[in-house]
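Worked Example 4.2. Read the sequence first, then its structure tokens.
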Amino acid sequence: MPRILLEVCVDSPAGFNAAVEGGADRIELCSSLSVGGLTPSPGFMAFAAKAARPSRAMIRPRVGSYVFSEGEIDVMRQDIDAARAAGLAGVVIGANLASGQLDEKATARLAQQAAGLELTLHRSVDLMPDPLDAVDIAIGLGFRTILTSGGELKAPDGAETVAAMVARAGNRLEILGGSGLNPGNVVSFVKKTNVKAVHGSFSAPWPQIDQKLVRFGFIGNDARETSRDTVRQVRAAIDSLP
């Protein structure tokens, strides 16, 4: 079996370094992972662009749904330009209609703005009635990757759908399985789905949290950070596959 690609999503320079040291092949660059990831700052993009690992920036201007207004799409287009200017490898984009279906028109506009960058279609596909429908759409729009949990909260629970997406995509598109993967379940997930790439934050709780910062609302008691050791364990697990 070819080496399984390991992508780690991070939202801080410390998390970025932990992912690289742990053996990540590629980075999804975000802010605010606690809400699914938002657009990283220009400074964080510039920081990541200096590293040897390729990074793709999440382009999402706010929390909540992936149904975007015209003004939000304009912001996202400028954020795509910022990712390009920083020298990042690609961007992570997508939009939905109120029905949950992929908003092909809005997604196409974002993809066109990102011409020349690597494109990931993010977990907006997991809100679709049938994520399998996203495969041919994404290929037609020039995407390289779909990040998905198969329409379920956690990827192991959506393994059947992820496997169907892998079969539909063939060699035309990378299906990146993510959400809820860890050192204990990633091998069985890869075997069930035949994915060639896996994704996660692979985080651990902050070792110490100042309760004054919690009282002021600057951090939560449940704060987490990407763990170098957990990334290493996932790397070792997938590298053990024959």
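Now turn to a second chain, presented in exactly the same format:
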Amino acid sequence: MDLTERLSNTEFAGLLQRLTARDWKQAPRKRFEVGGVAPDGRRKFGQVNEFVLRVLRAEPTGPRVRDIHAQIEFLLGEPVSRSSVKSSVHRLFRGRNPQVARIARGRYTLRE
């Protein structure tokens, strides 16, 4: 009695042969446009900082953070998280070379 053909799994054997062949190829990485938002929602590094400085140059009277946020969303034409704008303003206000000065609670202007 011959049981070798009946107990063998040809599909599984084919998968094992493909795995042991070592002719694997890595899938190419998906690229996204440099100017826009990444597929996971992140922006290019420093983009929000650039727009905060642009808004502060346009309005020297010292806009509020929520006004800066609204202007950035208007300029980009898409939503931006409030926390990114707030942290960007805070990062420009603090640090080694502060570029922004606080003139009142929640109001900022460029340093001279």
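Notes for the reader: Strands lie at 100-104, 107-110. The chain has a mean pLDDT of 81.
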